Structure formats: structure tokens, C-alpha cells
Amino acid sequence: MSTREDPEKIELLQGTLDLLILQTLRSGQVHGHAIAKAIERNSDEVLQVEQGSLYPALHRLIRRGWISSAEGLSENNRKAKFYRLTPKGRKQLGVETNKWDKLAEAISRILRPQRKEGIS
Predict the structure, then answer these.
(1) How far apart are CA 34 and CA 31, in angstroms?
(2) Is this prediction's pTM over 0.85?
(3) What distance in Å separates the CA atoms of residue 72 and residue 52, rounded to the nearest whole number?
């Protein structure tokens, strides 16, 4: 994952790319380049996925049994590898999403603490 030296870009925490890939595959099989483009598009171009990050993540997810792959033809009739979420991956997406939600809530509590009674 890259931010291409743009101050508006945000570096991702380790493991976040895996979550984004799982979420991207939730709606069906997609080839690698389309996964990267979907993440970029859905983040309003804030997140840029480099091949050097994407393909190791895809291989890691295959090893874990969270996604599978199959050869096919892309929309421009080129050979491509398509990735699909497995039932185990669909379950893991729920687990990882819950972890992310808890992390985001905890960070938010630290960055924007509520004023507690008697504490100014």
C-alpha cells in the first residue's frame, strides 16, 4: 500500500489491506488489478494499492484459505487470475470487520475524549 508521497494519502495499519481485499471480494470474483482499482476508487483515491503489496497479500489470503483463485479472461480478453472469497473468508471478513470497528472506536475515544462529569 502506498501513499505516493502525497500528504493527503494515509498509510494503512498492518493487516488492513487484507480486510479491504476481503471486503472487495464480498460481491464476487475479481482479478487482481480490479481489486486494486476498486480499493482506490472506493477510498476516493486516498488509498493506492501497489502490486508489491497486493499480490503478497493475495497469496497470504490463499494460504489462509480465506480466498481462492482461478484462471480466466479479463474484460479486455487477457488471461488473468480471478480471486473469490471462500466460506471461511466470508466468516473471517466478519471477524476482521468487528476487530476494525473496535480499534476505530478505541482510537476515536482517545482522539476525541468525552468530557466526564467533574473533569475539565
Answers:
(1) 5
(2) no
(3) 22
